[in-house]
Batch of 2 targets.
Target 1
Amino acid sequence: MAVAPERTRLTWDYSPAPESADHVRLRDAYGVFVGGEFADPRSGKSAPTVNPATEAKIAKVAIAGEEDVAHAVKVAREAQRKWAALPALERGKYLFRIARLMQERARELAIVETMDGGKPIRESRDIDIPLAAAHFFHYAGWADKIGYGIAGREHRPHGVVAQIVPWNFPLLMAAWKLAPALACGNAAILKPADTTPLTALLLAEICQEAELPPGVVSILPGNGATGAALVRAEGIDKVAFTGSTAVGKDIQAALAGRDVGLTLELGGKSANIVFEDASIDQAVEGIVQGIFFNQGHVCCAGSRLLVQESVAEQVEAKLWERMQKLRLGDPLDKNTDVGAVNSGEQLTRIETLVAAGEDEGATRRTIACDIPERGHWFAPTLFTEVSPVHRIAVEEIFGPVVSMLTFRTQAEAIEKANNSKYGLAAGIWTDKGGKAFEVAAQLKAGVVWQNTYNHFDPTAAFGGYKESGFGREGGAAGLRPYVRVS
Ligand code: NDP
């Protein structure tokens, strides 16, 4: 009788698959981009932008000051009149051109996004850059159809719009803001975050290549003071901001009493709700995608995991098993799931809140993995035994940390999900379509995903309730903030 051969367990490891950055040609220094040209900042100030995975300096970048802001506003004002006077179809053509150039330079943009921000190349290559181009394509199509997007009302552009974006999706946030603003006939002044200015500066080069009329887009790299000067500048007609709730409140106060339009896209503590009738394996993938995507540096991250008690043990076990398979490391490696934390400052914020979670009595589990010697890193972490009053259940951690809570009934799930000062997004995992719609209708969240999470599309509106801000970006709804209607 033949004896079955003994089966040996093979452990396969990944070989490194780093994306080469050899063909990326960055300048040693970047100035401000105003009037279609790069120039030294009038402030005379600059600072290096640093790769958070290696702490290596990448390039020296200008820090725009008040004089740069005033100059950019003046130039944008002149350019805007001519831009708005162009036939809308022509404006659309420029946006199509920008979108196509972004696609042509997609590989370079993805690498630079990953080097400057720390996110895995898989994400910048497959999500950030294609979605950024898709937003330009989408709003290019809207340029001559704006009336249809705002219920046929009379409309005109605001004029000069100031746009401030954060460091978690640098190019994508720039596209979310610039594309609708330009389609509607505004001139825009964009301030990227100080830790991730590079792709916005490459986008400035793309605007040059597209022969966008000078002054229609200005890029003012800088720090918080640059942003503060921009929102307070005379001659600004509208401000669009994405970032922390604290700065959003400061901007709202600064604009009080001024006839300046404002949209705010702020923080979140979004609930990802798993019902007992959900496909558990699918839900676990969604939980992972919801919180570990982009190291959890996502305003709509599913950071509050609510699981029905009857399946809590199963979900917890499967989630923990899945988490241990996540690969943390070199963001330029195509196998990497979790890249570098964007800055030392952000790492300190994450560590502080995680320490608070432990102090308050929640149970912490962090996956064991090799942490690179240089750079800023935080390994995927799961908190259980979390009470709704714990800081880790209330405050935005903005890192790869998920807090798991349980519920017994649908009503309790809704109450717990809405028990937050934020209202940006939510996820619902259930096999019952009717239940998903019933729950979604009762959630105070701007976006509700069903059996998926962190799914973005240029045709869909995105924005929040409560302290997550107001105004919508994306789709037809994203046109409204960029026009005055009468
Ligand atoms: P900020 O809100 O400070 O930064 C967002 C943008 O605003 C950046 O471009 C920043 O410039 C600029 N800015 C900073 N201060 C001012 C000001 N007074 N007036 C105008 N613009 C300003 O966020 P942080 O980077 O400090 O992150 C802090 C926390 O905010 C995170 O831990 C996270 O919880 C949350 N956050 C939420 C985001 C979201 O998408 N909802 C995005 C980013 C952060 P600069 O970068 O140069 O300082």
Target 2
Amino acid sequence: MKKVYLDHSATTRMDKRVFDAMMPYFRERFGNASSVHGFGQDAAKRVERARGQVAGFLKCDPEEVVFTSGATESNNLVLRGVTAALGKNGLEDMHVITSRIEHDSMLEPASELERRGIEVTYVDVRPNGVVDPKSVKRTIRETTVLVSIMYVNNEVGSIQPIKEIGHLINEENARRAGGAGRGRIYFHTDATQAVNFLDCNVGLNRVDLLSLSGHKIYGPKGVGALYVREGTVLAAQQLGGHHEKNRRSGTLNVPGIVGLGAAIGLLDPETVEKNVIQIAAVRDLLVEGILGSIPDVTLNTDRQVSTPAHAHFSFAGVDGESILIGLDMEGIAVSTGSACASMSDEPAPALLAMGIDPALARNSIRFTLGKNNTEAEIVRVLEVLPPIVKRLREISPAYRT
Ligand code: PMP
């Protein structure tokens, strides 16, 4: 049975070119990038090349790129590191703005900040899963120090108006610069799900901090980066060897960093455009096929405002988990939501924030497509899925036609 992988928001298969770039750094060129000798300097040079590749993609200075273990760490570092640095500078009242649709690696450290007495506002989204920049603007107070809004939501794929939010924060900062005392607002975006498809130019988007992850872009797991604009306050949260210019200690994951650089290096504008067109065509085939062959289905992804990767559905009356298992038995991999939250019974907060009924949210399946999916694979899904849903509905007390 040929397997079909439709869970690219969870992780991607490493591109062969990335794998090839990494290989020498496991055995032949194994030096510690902090060592003074030739082995170390060889590794250090290669790390700097990778840093340049990331900086080239973000259009920033290589010095502004901090390598981390992934987007979870980058997000934690932002929330804890910015507030800790401001706290050390003597700031007491702090207010942070984020959204209700963020990944758990933002929401959990955000609630930790609340427990420490920092106020956090979670802005709502429209039913299409998009934050209204006006609601961010309305929420800003004199005590606001940090705004963090993700670039693309991992559940439904909705693209957030990062540029508009960046510009309005910039205006607010300009206003503050003329006034009394208060420092500026820092703007962070979790771009983990955006890098494959969208412009992450940090200057144009006016972001001060940006998180990304290797394994979502056909690169390795356990490596990511945080862009930190020069002049941004950030207290290291992991102390030790003063790596990454004191921003993140720990021996550098040289093969991982080489892989991250190689993966991001593959994302030139022409390739991105080609991927977008191809993935959107395959995704649309899936969407039209499901809507046309299965009754009582809701498409929760608004394709007008989303990346081409996502197609998130609710199948009335059947548990998403049961559909997932049915498809898995046929070798087709999907998810009921983000892999990190899949251990919990609760529907993803993002779906509830979009106003989706909690019962219907539990009936959800997330398909996320990637650059290697084919139309033939979708034809297979469309053969297998309708009978699975039909069978489950026949035994479901929750489903009434
Ligand atoms: N943010 C978003 C939006 C994500 O989708 C993920 C991965 N599920 C993360 C952060 C965490 O990334 P990592 O796996 O690199 O820790």
